[in-house]
Description:
With 441 residues, the protein is α/β, with parallel strands linked by helices. Helix content is 37%, strand content 23%. The longest helix is centred in the middle third of the chain and has 26 residues, at 138-163.
Amino acid sequence: MRKKIGIIGGGISGLSLAWYLKKFAKEFECLLFEKSEKVGGVIGRYQQEDLILDSGPKTFRESSCSDLLSLIEELEMQNEIIESLNASKIRYIYVNQKLCPLPLTLKQFLFSSLTFKAIPSLVKEIFIKKTTLKDESVGAFARRRFGNYIAEHFFDPFVMGVCGCDMDKLSIGASFPFLKELEEKNGSIIRGLFKRKKQKNNKGLFNLKGGLQTLVETLERKLEKELIVNCEVSEVVKELSGFRVKTVKGDFFVDYLFLSLPSEGVKKMKLPFEIEKDPFFFQSNSNSLVGVSVAYQSKQHQVKGFGYLVPSKEKEVVLGVIFDSEIFSNLDASNYQTKLTLIFPASFIDLGEEVIKEKALDVLSRHLAIQKAPDAFKVFRYPNALVNYPVFHKSSLDQIQFKIRDLDSRLILAGNYMHPPGVNHCVKNAKTIAKTFQERL
Length: 441
Ligand SMILES: Cc1cc2nc3c(=O)[nH]c(=O)nc-3n(C[C@H](O)[C@H](O)[C@H](O)COP(=O)(O)OP(=O)(O)OC[C@H]3O[C@@H](n4cnc5c(N)ncnc54)[C@H](O)[C@@H]3O)c2cc1C
């Protein structure tokens, strides 16, 4: 009889892990347990005839997504890739009730009211000594190296938009390790960025026709035999040479078990060695977000670009707005001229749809002068979807990894708290875990 591998959690972390385990550990039978009726986790799509509003992750930088791209290639989906429009390189910050473009050239940089004030701090940064601290918050890092103006106008909205969380609560080493590395290797972020710019081919963004859900659907087809949906795992019991996985569909025995679910999911389960009660999971928090997609058949604004972020000091309800139709023109076959996604903070998660709609339309009217009611409107709620990486997250993660390995090397952590945010990191982590597993056998 073939030995069995169990994977808990069918988001992109679990799906890509199932794909790579199937490839690298062929001798095993693999079972993936997913709580909801569909796999993909936060990745999804809402469809209204030809119109597609994709939810969750929707932009991927070509230069930093090599693992996601190689998965797409392995699945023979290269023809599904769509590239971003050139104008999407322009990004804005909403300051003093105006959209201020982030400069793309040195000339724009010197003459922009937004960045002009930042020049002295940027010059000073080159000469600030690197820290000996092992970790610190993103806010502390930003203020130490760049001062308050840059921290508040650039770091704060970026962190709120990407992680849904206050920059003073997040670890720089765990959430943005490349910035920490730039300081460690070059002594200065600015010096490091100049070096990187020379080395890196700064390509654009990509997505897939129909959104990333197209990738999920392909994985779903290829992993048909492995997936068990509507199958919440409530408890895992240690047995002599493996685990009993208790689910709503009955008990399953597996020889090896991978936990591919976020820390909130781990906390809610009963696990061997009481892993869920370890401070790493027990005290961990995650952040919620609400995304509101709106679409209009006619052109509603003339601003070209990716979208904008809003610094906390502006005291606005919205964290940012993505100009979906200005980034990819061919995501679907519809001829809707304007598609936008508004991102709202955790405080919106329990609000009713009508209240959210009212607030979203108010933002669009004040920020982009859009007065018309949308032709399509959809609220996407993401409860506890974003990992919160507190300071020293990485060392706490190492500790719990060692502890589990010492107790039982058949139980393997594979959740998204192991790496910085983003789909590429999920895929890369899954591939590394599957390869390491094969080498260990
Ligand atoms: C609004 C938003 C926008 C984003 N935008 C981008 C972007 O543009 N680019 C980018 O690269 N990244 C983006 N991200 C981040 C990216 O989406 C995530 O890093 C990634 O999708 C996480 O996948 P995951 O599989 O680890 O977790 P999830 O997608 O959360 O999946 C976890 C799965 O585990 C299942 N589960 C939980 N408990 C149990 C249980 N007890 N039993 C069985 N199953 C269980 C859940 O149902 C779920 O399907 C975004 C995230 C959000 C929320």
